[in-house]
Amino acid sequence: MISAFEYITVFISIILGLGVTQILTGIADLVHQNERVKIYWPHVVWIFLVLILHVQEWYVTFELRTLDKWRFPLFLFLLLYPVVLFIMARLLFPFGFNEGVIDLRKFYFENYRRIFLFGSMLPFLSILDNLILRDYAWLDILAQFVVLLALSMMAILKNSKPWLHKSVAVFLLLFLVGSIIVEWDKWLVTN
Q1: Which of 45, 62, 64, 109 is the most exposed place for a label (fewest CB within 10 A)?
Q2: How far apart (Å, rounded) are the C-alpha atoms in residues 39 and 75?
């Protein structure tokens, strides 16, 4: 007999799989047309971040296997994070470029506010998830508030200064690497 967890996570996995497909297809398209592509490394960092966040969400979803009561509102809430990730995966790649140069710097600066808007939804949803479902303390999620604030400010403010966008990309990359190291350390201690 199939459990509610197994049933529900199949749908979540499908959405996450579609997002990963968007990213990998986008990367493959850029590689295929590499002679026409002008790379912008902060944009590439975002692609990497969103790919890792898809994998992380799939992995973290397994922690919900012990949840006893599954209700439709909870299911809808849990779908929000993968849906936002999918939208971000789609926003990160230009489409419809049949001719000419694909300038990722230009594309990034034309779309960065949308990327940051949807990006800011991720720590917001994660904070809610950690407080409501996983029973984290406020201090445990303080770093997520910092990320939420940084991404929200970038979405709200019209600031096209490249140094700022590069700084945020480095900050997010370091934050991701740091959170993976912290989780690795926790895993080593428990195993």
Answers
A1: 62
A2: 38
